[in-house]
Amino acid sequence: MMKKLCFLPNLNFKTKLLLMICFFNISLVLLISSLNYKWYSNQITRQTINETQQIIDQIGVNIDNYIDELFRLTLSPYYNDEIMEELKSPSVSVHSTLNKKRKIENFLSSVMTLPRNEILRVYVLTDSDIYSYIRTPYEMNDYYTYQESNWYKEALQSTKPVYIPIHSEKVFGNKETQIFSIARKIRSKEDNSITLGVIKVDADYTGIKSICDKVHFENKGSLFVINGNHDIVYQNNALINQDFLNMIPADLTKGDFILNFAGNKYIINVTTLETSGLKVIAINSYEELMKTTRSNLSRTIMLVLICIIISVIIFILFIQEFFHPLFNIIKSMKLVQNGDLSIQVPVKNKDEIGYLAISFNKMLININDIMNKNSKLIKEVYESQYLNKESQYNALYSQIKPHFLYNTLNTISLLIKCEETNKAVQSIENLSCFMRGIMNTSKEISLEVEIKIIDSYLELQQMRYGEKLTYSIEIELEFLSIKIPTLSLQPIVENAVKHGCELKRGNTHIHIYSISNDESISILVTDNGKGIDPAVLSILNKRLEDPCQTAIPFSETNQLEGNIGLINVHRRLRLKYGNKAGLKITSVKEKGTTVILHIPIITSKEEDPYV
């Protein structure tokens, strides 16, 4: 927290102190308010969930009782002996048939249909006859094929009422209406094994609607009744659509959960009726539920902020008086920051701030003495380090230079002995070009000159190896003027020739090219030679990453034979450019080696710290 305050360097101590106090006070208020809001919100949410669950459970009980009443209505024929006798007795004439039909249908009308407006149709079905009373202009869909219907067969096989789930049929007009049905087998009272028929009742959902309409949720809550296919049987809020209901898990039979839909949170309560399989769903908007809580939270925060503002004003007056001596010390520090080390702070108090002023004055006196002593010492140390770096540079330079000359002169000697005069002359010219480059008194040359030296060297090696050695050089023109230490690339190329042509059968190709970014340039030398042994490569990379550039132990000298030149080049680059420069070597046995020479691009404003 203090570090965050330190990110305000332009503010004085008084302002930072005030900000810190305000920050702590406001943070504390916000923390307590948020915790209290969270606790209260959870309490309100849990209370709403529990109360809503109790309500929909009671609605479910009422709907179950309503359906049970319909179940009991299907038992009405058993309480009328005349109707039971008519169902049991066969018709012997047309007159008796009509009389039987009139009695049964009048019974259905008076006992079952008229007292209950939600009952649309009621049938008594036997193997040969249909007796009905209907309120609608349409008969049931399977009127002529009822004996083949599953519900009819199921009713004949069961002694309990059969609930036929929601289905759509034409009732009034051409539009289909959702209805449900109840069927029960009618058996003889004298002999239960004798089936007299099946009674079937079709009803709409006005009875369920009247039960649900008695319930009103606060905070714009919604109540739904749906079937197993998520078809809406009842709803009191048209804003909730089918897509919303489809988000409710089909396997949830009872319980509650929070649903996020269209960027809003909703509290969902669900209960399922065992008899009908209907689901009663209550939906409460979390945002509406929390409106009052958020309003109380806002008023509390505003009141506390007003109190904080008043306390800050009082605290400002206190700080102005109490910290006045400290502000005098701060003013003196600013003068010291501008270079005036002769300043002395007047001491007026004997408290902690007075002690701070005395210590500050003593510190300035000591700083003046130390700076005078260190100025001379720093100069001596810098000169010593510079001479040491220059000595290392010269030693490494002289170590690399003879390495190439020996190989070149040996090649020319072989050409002369073989009486290949033209090639020998060409080799001497190439050697002359090389010597002109390295005999320069300067210890660094341009990349263009270095490339010419390498080109001369590779032509000499091609005279020696013929078609066995090929090479290509692709350096961006804009980098040819960059200055690099002399013979930085030649030992790398020489190693590529050695491991490619001398130690490998077959042709060898050496590719030299450059890549760059805004800060550095990398020159890559790749070959398809035998590669470096993994153990040697590990030691070599370890030496390249040695930050202290210690001497190579005798135990590693034999293993690094032929690669010491690379280590020398790497150290020269580090001496010249620092740790941003150097070599990186990757190699795969029997496939080749890649050496990357990496140097930073030094702009005109930068200076070389070692030259």
UniProtKB/TrEMBL annotation:
InterPro entries: Bact_2-comp_sensor_kinase, HAMP_dom, HATPase_C_sf, HATPase_dom, Sig_transdc_His_kin_internal
EC number of this enzyme: 2.7.13.3
Coiled-coil regions listed: none
Recorded superkingdom: Bacteria
Key word Iron present: no
The protein's name in its UniProt record: Sensor histidine kinase YpdA
Transmembrane intervals: 17-37, 300-319
Keyword line: Kinase, Membrane, Phosphoprotein, Transferase, Transmembrane, Transmembrane helix
GO molecular function, one term: phosphorelay sensor kinase activity
Compartments, as annotated in UniProt: Membrane
Keyword Transferase: yes
Enzyme class: transferase
Recorded GO CC terms: membrane
Domain (HAMP) ranges: 320-372
